[in-house]
Design goal:
Layout lengths: L4 H4 L5 H22 L9 H10 L4 H8 L3 H13 L3 E5 L7 E5 L1 H24 L6 H14 L2 H8 L4
Antiparallel strand pairs: 1-2
Helix pairs in contact: 4-5
């Protein structure tokens, strides 16, 4: 069996290992969607579930809730609009603001999407049974990075001559 160089790197390989794990899971989700004949992207479930819960929200509110950049949200929403999953409506209180909501197409397709998402959720739950502290550890890591950016930490701890 071949050695895993990223694992060998220990802490230095962590970012690449997280990326590899994320890519593998996203690829698998894409394949499931494709095999089911669904024309959605893996990260769109965030928007579907958010708008299902809140009905209407702005892109800025989504970016804040997901803690993602505004350009990332705009790109995702534009693709969803192109495929007819999100409608943009004027805010009743302020016509300059644009609210997003699930389209009729989304509402009709949502039960089928939710079955797949449930399968993904259960799969992750089973994979993490042997490591129940993983999500807590991930939360602590995210909190630490919110308190001091990774960039700041690197500069603080870098080697100096």
């Amino acid at each position: 069996m071949q050695e895993d160089f990223l694992n060998e790197l220990g802490h230095l390989g962590m970012i690449a290992r997280l990326k590899r794990l994320s890519d593998s899971m996203l690829y698998s989700i894409r394949e499931v969607y494709k095999s089911e004949g669904l024309d959605i992207e893996p990260n769109w479930h965030l928007v579907f579930l958010f708008l299902k819960k809140y009905e209407t929200r702005t892109m800025t509110e989504m970016a804040e809730a997901f803690q993602l950049s505004q350009p990332a949200i705009v790109k995702m929403i534009n693709k969803m609009k192109e495929r007819g999953y999100v409608d943009v409506v004027s805010d009743t209180a302020d016509n300059r603001k644009r609210q997003l909501r699930l389209s009729k197409k989304s509402k009709k397709a949502l039960p089928g999407f939710e079955k797949i998402w449930f399968g993904g959720q259960e799969s992750i739950r089973k994979m993490l049974q042997k490591n129940e502290v993983f999500l807590d550890s991930l939360e602590m890591l995210e909190q630490d990075i919110r308190q001091q950016s990774f960039r700041e930490r690197i500069l603080q701890h870098r080697k100096t001559d």
